[in-house]
Amino acid sequence: MSCTVLMIAEKPSLAESITKILAPNGRYNTRKMTSPVHEYSAEFRGAMCKFKFTSVKGHVYNLDFTREYNDWNIDPLELFTARTAKQEASKSGSICHHLQQESKAIDYVILWLDCDREGENICYEVIKNVRQGMKQSPGDKDSRILRAKFSAITATDIRKAMDNLIYPNENEALAVDARQELDLKIGCAFTRFQTKFFNRKYGNLDSNVISYGPCQTPTLSFCVSRHDQIKSFSPESFWTLSVSVAKQGTNGEQSGPEINLHWGRVKVFDKHVATIFQNMVRGNKEAIVVSISSDKHTKNKPHALNTVELLKFGSSNLGIGPHETMVIAERLYTQGYISYPRTETTSYPKNFDIKSVLKDQSGHPLWGLYAKELLEKGFDWPTGGTDAGDHPPITPMRVAYEGDLTGDSWRIYNYITRHFLGSISPNLKYQKTNVTIKIGIESFECSGTKVLQPGFSSVMHWRTMSDQIMQEFNQNEILKIIDVRLVEGQTSPPDYLTESEVITLMEKHGIGTDASIPVHINNICQRNYVTVQGSARRLVPTNLGIVLIHGYQKIDPDLSLPTMRSDVEKQLNYIASGKAKYADVLDHSLNLFAAKFKYFRDHVAQMDELFEATFSTLASTGKILTKCGKCKRYLKYIALKPVRLHCPTCEETYSLPSNGHIKDYKGLQCPLDDFGLVSFSTGSKDIGYPLCPYCYNHPPFENIRKGC
């Protein structure tokens, strides 16, 4: 072989899927390594080459502080200027070693990482490990490190990407580096300070970590804002006229079913006024039809599907949370069933082969006849939508049957396919007839609708419109009044936000990206700041979430508003497009948040007032367990998260291991510090081991980490 080409995908399953497409006749050999290596021979740039296709498993590195800054006793303000380092995501270091071994004496590298900013960032993590092992010639190494751009795992897309290789984009990778460092430093500074400050004072917070996040906190703020609206809402009574009429015969008798009318004034908020209107209407014996209008209306078909719309539908219609929806969509993508699921685009590219997708789906037992009809009668090329310049919209790429996919995977695929078919279908058309009826000087209405063309709703059945049959009326027709009632009602507060509504707000305010939105919503759930309630999946904030946001609002509202994060996202976009320098954006943002952190720390007492009014102090919480080695008085055991011991006399708190059982250990004391020993045990057999609370938090010997 005249050359060797190393190709790397983001996941092992993706590497295998692409290998099956590119290997001649689908034949290849596989070596079982840290990540499988698929090998075959094929032509590349005019020469016969050996191809090796392997993968990483997501990010190769995680960003963290250097070791000296991992001590929570360090002043959190120092974290804004602290040194950071990229550490291998795999604790064993096996992925880095694997890449270094496989890259020895190779001629070319082709990167098949996901085609978004995160994927671009992983490209450069891979390059860091493979560049050194490459052959020195021909040409410089960078010219032989290539990037494949693709949006679907289909033979057409993959071969097209292979024929149109480009170079990786360092600016997009740097934008991710900047975002990672900002999130790490800002999040850790606020989180460490808050966690230490409040967990040392309160016993029933029910959260190990009281975190702050530049994205998660504004997301939580949306939920708390709605909660505040609900709690401050004052219901107000109103009254409306409920009137029913009917057609009448020649002798004035009722000759048809009752027809309920809608009052033109809708409602009034004064009962006395409402009663006057009721008496005025009751003073009439007949109603008269004064106008009949009939108009045709259109409901437009949906735009092409993007990530945000998929997440919203998954939550509101399928009852699947955004995080799980994204996991399922990514799995469907790697299996080749759908196109790349992370996209902001809602318009099909001009060269998109709609006919090919329709042909693939025309044999499906559920929607095949509909797809075939679109092929035969012609489909409507979608208009409108937005081309965000990232990836094509989400579409089906391979036919799947209900037996091929299980549970929620099938439901997501079913929706994606039906949405695609709906987006190229005719619009829904209907006719609406409005009838205005007068009783004295008061106007009432009734209406009916008739579907003229179901259009896209034939396949998107959840958007079906049904006929609302209404009796036929004639101009100036006299109707018999059957009943005139006064109905009392009350205004109601808005409901808690659904996940779908929160996603809409995040997109509107530029909080997160299509890929990170599910992560931020999942974070506020995991932190016990909100709970997901009911089939509508409403996000109801907990006391902890409410107090945090109210505290930020008292000290510095910017900390919980979406404007700060959206401004940062704009700066990151400038890095990605080459309009701003990585270092400049990083310095500006860190200086801004460092100043805000100092102000927050100096005024945290304002937030503490809210905590004190909501939560129990450590002194009033817990049960007596063992003795303090300093004051010789009893320590109190706090069983709620985070598990800890508290000395009311010394006002000191000692963390303990979680997910187990804690009890006194035979009344014995630690020989080093006189603290009473406790026993920690896990499992049904309850076999435990003794530990000293003080030594657990302050290791007495060198090279022993806290908590060991």
Automatic annotation (TrEMBL):
TM region positions: none
GO CC list: nucleus
Its EC number(s): 5.6.2.1
Example GO BP: DNA recombination
Catalytic activity annotation: ATP-independent breakage of single-stranded DNA, followed by passage and rejoining
Keyword set, alphabetical order: DNA-binding, Isomerase, Topoisomerase
Topo IA-type catalytic domain span: 169-597
Residue ranges of domain Toprim in the record: 4-149
Highest taxon above the source species: Eukaryota
Top EC class for this record: isomerase
CDD domains listed in its UniProt record: TOP1Ac (cd00186), TOPRIM_TopoIA_TopoIII (cd03362)
GO MF, one annotated term: DNA binding
Family according to the record: Belongs to the type IA topoisomerase family.
Function: Introduces a single-strand break via transesterification at a target site in duplex DNA. Releases the supercoiling and torsional tension of DNA introduced during the DNA replication and transcription by transiently cleaving and rejoining one strand of the DNA duplex. The scissile phosphodiester is attacked by the catalytic tyrosine of the enzyme, resulting in the formation of a DNA-(5'-phosphotyrosyl)-enzyme intermediate and the expulsion of a 3'-OH DNA strand.
Name the record gives this protein: DNA topoisomerase
